[in-house]
């Protein structure tokens, strides 16, 4: 009896599981036949499954509202999507269908907001949280947005100097601001104080001396964000409690302050054995804020989150074909795929991010441990099993088999296109793959269409300044 890849997955994880199942021996994604997409579009291609975005938004919103009701919490919950995670129109538009608010990070983000506003995708009641370093151009565009009527636009100060620049701008109305607290980031082997935000020991004095009687601004929000994510660890709760105490101290001095912003940080599934108790963490957050506010007899604030990766990460995937397998020594086998991993999934090699990797076909074949390499000339263009808890085990296949082995990297919908520079110049001039959008109609039937074909040589040469071919 051979030990098949299907046996491996079935014995190692709960399978089928949300989003992943087998259909006629081949992998399906949320009920969609990936083999059908391969036959229709060829490989490589990346796709976004839009309905997953709404599912994630509804899940988080329901859990927060459930915790608010169970704890008798008096504040409201506001879900924001941070556009930097995936700027594509079809992605942001899908999120807006579920009544999210938005978070921006740079000057051009404001142009994106205006574009959506002119298309009636959002209105002036939408809450817009402005993070990131505030250049003069960024600030002027934000003020312009507020003068247009976006009364719920909030500038989160990342440094003390940003207030000085706001004070120099002539405005018709007082500007809504927030304050971001700098935290001690948890690095791989140590801690360091983030360059983002204002030192918590300086925040209260800064408010009293520079904001409290300032006729130009109104403090609305306290903001903190832990880059390593919302986790049930002593480190996270320590930073959380520090921020919560600071909010209470500020609230005692500021009547207009009414919002506590947790930032982003909810994790997504990056392997089939992923476990995270979202309901527990949300309930603990709500319970802690309520208890602290009751202790000091202050109103419970509205709670904001800025979920980016959580919103769109699990909606994306990229599909490759294995072009060749190479036995480089007695133990190492390489599968060479038909694009570059550095170009298409830059987080995998730059910060060693892991994604769900599964074969599309050949689940009845035996399996072995492999490294996966791209077709660029760079030695770093690979994905392997350096993390022994997430070994890359894939089906064996013979070169004589008529059907190639197809592989999918799943939950790649966040940051990959932005970091790799979608449609730009790639390492070794390897083109950006075809981009496919998948959606469902009113009857629940899925349909797909090509958003953009694989990048062509003329497109790249035009960017590089070469004459037409």
Structural description of this entry:
The longest helix is centred in the N-terminal third of the chain and has 20 residues. The strands form 5 sheets. Strands 4, 15, 16, 17, 19, 20, 22, 23 and 24 form a 9-stranded mixed sheet that branches. Helices cover 32% and strands 24% of the residues. The chain is α/β, with parallel strands linked by helices and 469 residues long. It has 2 domains: 190 residues, Lyase, Ornithine Decarboxylase, Chain A, domain 1 (Beta Barrel); 257 residues, TIM Barrel, CATH 3.20.20. The radius of gyration is 24 Å and the shape is globular. The model has no long low-confidence stretch (mean pLDDT 93).
Notable characteristics:
469 residues; alpha/beta; Lyase, Ornithine Decarboxylase, Chain A, domain 1; TIM Barrel; 8-stranded parallel beta barrel; 15 helices; 24% strand; globular
Write the layout of secondary structure elements.
Blueprint: H1 5-12, E1 20-23, E2 26-29, E3 32-33, H2 34-41, E4 45-49, H3 51-70, E5 77-82, H4 89-96, E6 101-104, H5 107-118, E7 128-130, H6 136-147, E8 153-157, H7 160-167, E9 175-180, E10 184-186, E11 191-193, H8 200-211, E12 217-223, H9 234-253, E13 259-261, H10 278-295, E14 302-306, H11 309-312, E15 316-327, E16 333-337, H12 341-344, H13 346-350, E17 356-359, E18 367-369, E19 371-373, E20 382-383, E21 393-395, E22 406-410, H14 416-420, E23 434-440, E24 446-452, H15 457-464
Parallel strand pairs: 4-23, 5-6, 5-14, 6-7, 7-8, 8-9, 9-12, 12-13, 13-14, 16-19
Antiparallel strand pairs: 1-2, 2-3, 4-15, 10-11, 15-16, 15-22, 17-22, 18-21, 19-20, 23-24
């Amino acid at each position: 009896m051979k030990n098949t890849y299907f046996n491996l997955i079935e014995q190692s994880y709960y399978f089928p599981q949300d989003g992943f199942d087998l259909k006629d021996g081949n992998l399906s994604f949320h009920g969609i036949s990936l083999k059908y997409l391969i036959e229709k579009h060829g490989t490589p291609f990346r796709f976004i499954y839009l309905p997953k975005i709404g599912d994630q938004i509804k899940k988080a919103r329901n859990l927060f509202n459930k915790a608010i009701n169970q704890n008798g919490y008096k504040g409201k919950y506001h879900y924001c999507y941070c556009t930097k995670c995936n700027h594509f129109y079809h992605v942001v538009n899908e999120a807006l269908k579920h009544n999210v608010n938005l978070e921006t990070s740079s000057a051009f983000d404001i142009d994106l907001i205006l574009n959506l506003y002119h298309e009636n995708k959002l209105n002036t009641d939408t809450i817009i949280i402005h993070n990131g370093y505030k250049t003069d151009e960024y600030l002027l565009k934000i003020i312009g947005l507020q003068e247009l009527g976006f009364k719920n636009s909030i500038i989160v100060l990342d440094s003390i100097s940003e207030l000085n620049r706001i004070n120099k701008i002539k405005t018709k109305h007082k500007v809504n601001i927030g304050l971001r607290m700098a935290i001690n980031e948890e690095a791989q082997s140590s801690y360091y104080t983030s360059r983002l935000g204002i030192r918590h020991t300086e925040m209260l004095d800064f408010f009293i001396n520079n904001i409290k009687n300032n006729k130009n601004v109104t403090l609305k929000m306290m903001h903190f964000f832990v880059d390593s994510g919302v986790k049930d660890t002593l480190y996270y709760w320590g930073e959380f409690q520090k921020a919560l105490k600071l909010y209470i101290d500020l609230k005692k001095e500021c009547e207009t302050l009414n919002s506590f912003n947790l930032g982003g940080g909810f994790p997504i599934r990056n392997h089939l054995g992923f476990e995270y108790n979202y309901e527990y963490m949300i309930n603990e957050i709500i319970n802690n804020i309520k208890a602290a506010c009751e202790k000091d007899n202050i109103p419970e604030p509205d709670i904001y989150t800025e979920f980016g990766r959580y919103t769109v990460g699990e909606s994306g995937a990229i599909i490759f074909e294995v072009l060749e397998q190479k036995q480089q020594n007695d133990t190492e086998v390489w599968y060479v795929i038909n694009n570059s991993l550095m170009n298409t999934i830059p987080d995998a090699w730059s910060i060693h991010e892991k994604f769900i990797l599964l074969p599309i076909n050949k689940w009845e074949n035996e399996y072995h441990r492999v490294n996966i390499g791209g077709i660029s000339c760079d030695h770093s263009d690979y994905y392997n099993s350096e993390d022994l808890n997430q070994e890359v085990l894939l089906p064996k296949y013979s070169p004589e088999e008529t059907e190639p082995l197809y592989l999918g990297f799943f939950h790649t919908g966040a940051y990959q296109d932005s970091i790799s520079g979608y449609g730009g110049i790639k390492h070794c001039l390897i083109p950006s793959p075809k981009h496919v959008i998948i959606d469902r109609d009113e009857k629940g039937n899925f349909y797909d269409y090509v958003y953009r074909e694989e990048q062509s040589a003329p497109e790249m040469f035009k960017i590089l300044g070469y004459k037409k071919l």
